[in-house]
Amino acid sequence: MIRPSYDHDVSIIIISFNTRDLLRECLQSALAESARLPPNASAEIIVVDNASRDGSADMVEREFAASPTPVRLLRSELNLGFGVANNLAIEAACGRYPVLLNSDAFFHPGALARAIAYIDADPSAGIGGARLISRDGEWQPSARTFHSVCRDALVLTSLSSRFPRSRIFGAPDRTWANPDEPAEVDWVTGAFMILRREALLKTGIFDPAFFLYCEEVDLCRRVKAAGFRVLYWPGVVVTHLGGESSRQLSEHAFSESEAQVVLWRMRSTLLYYRKHHGAQARWARWLEDGFFTLRRLRNLLSRSPRRLQRAQEASLMLRLMRQAWQETNGGRISPPRPW
Question: Domain 8-142+179-244 has what CATH class?
Answer without folding.
Answer: alpha beta
